[in-house]
TrEMBL record:
Gene3D superfamilies: Glucose Permease (Domain IIA), LysM domain. PROSITE patterns: LYSM. One of its GO terms (cellular component) is cell division site. Residues 40-84 form the LysM domain. The lineage of its organism: Bacteria, Pseudomonadati, Pseudomonadota, Gammaproteobacteria, Thiotrichales. SMART domains: LysM (SM00257). This is LysM domain-containing protein. Belongs to the E.coli NlpD/Haemophilus LppB family. Pfam families: LysM (PF01476), Peptidase_M23 (PF01551). One of its GO terms (molecular function) is metalloendopeptidase activity. InterPro entries: Cell_wall_metabolism_enzyme, Dup_hybrid_motif, LysM, LysM_dom_sf, M23ase_b-sheet_dom.
Length: 245
């Protein structure tokens, strides 16, 4: 997963963005920000996320993440200095974590360390996100999960109730990615979608339709699905109910 523990901190979901108001990497590179109007640094305040800070300065959150070499889930700390201009030197921040901003797709460094089921609590009542032939899966970026083959446009459902903390098409190795947070311990990940039907901040029920199945990197219709416990990828099969295959 993301290599980040979700215990001991409060996850603050970023403010909902306009539906599908996504910024492509090409648009980010071409965006002309007037550096003369920007301060060199921004000091993170309690409750702020990259989305909030970026809107304040008329920037794309991807720019700020890239300038500060931030990786998902983009945790911010009170007093942290974020550079807003190229060439500024990062300043050490305090340890008090105030937010995790999942609104930004960019370089990801999710840990693949397997975590034993017994260490994950509270439990989640999981269900299958879709039906089809099941195979082990590794995403383009090397992240582990399962591959559920099906048909293009096949319904993808939330594997459990929770809140959408990421919905974008811009994360390398995760096409049309959706991440749902179910409790402080568990996240579920849905990638290679053809169409996303939920946006960040949306609360979903177990079994709610969240996407349509798309094509994987082999141009075959399949869902890449992950369960993450305490920020680490786990084998989803022990968590999901038994089905006839």
């Amino acid at each position: 997963m993301m290599g980040v523990s979700l215990l001991g901190c409060t996850v603050v979901t970023p403010e909902p963005l306009p539906p599908y108001a996504l910024v492509s990497p090409q648009e980010i590179e071409m965006e002309n920000v007037n550096s003369l109007a920007l301060p060199t640094f921004h000091t993170v305040q309690a409750g702020e996320t990259l989305s909030v800070i970026a809107r304040r300065y008329g920037m794309a959150w991807q720019q700020i993440a890239r300038l500060n070499q931030l990786s998902p889930p983009y945790p911010l700390n009170i007093g942290q200095k974020l550079r807003l201009q190229t060439g500024a030197t990062p300043i050490a921040s305090s340890r008090k974590q105030v937010a995790r901003d999942y609104a930004q797709p960019d370089r990801a460094t999710f840990s693949q360390t397997q975590t034993q089921r017994g260490s994950c609590s509270p439990a989640v009542n999981w269900q299958w996100p879709t039906r089809g032939a099941i195979r082990p899966s590794v995403s383009e970026s090397g992240r582990k999960g399962i591959r559920i083959a099906g048909k293009t446009g096949q319904t993808i459902r939330a594997a459990a109730a929770g809140q959408v903390i990421h919905s974008s098409d811009g994360l390398q190795g995760y096409r049309h990615l959706i991440i749902i947070q179910h409790n402080p311990a568990f996240l579920s990940v849905y990638a290679n979608n053809q169409r996303r039907l939920v946006r960040e901040g949306t609360r979903v029920t177990s079994g709610q339709v969240i996407a349509d199945m798309g094509l994987d990197n082999q141009q075959q219709a399949a869902l890449h699905f992950e369960i993450r416990c305490q920020g680490k990828a786990v084998d989803p099969l022990p968590y999901l109910p038994n089905i006839s295959r």
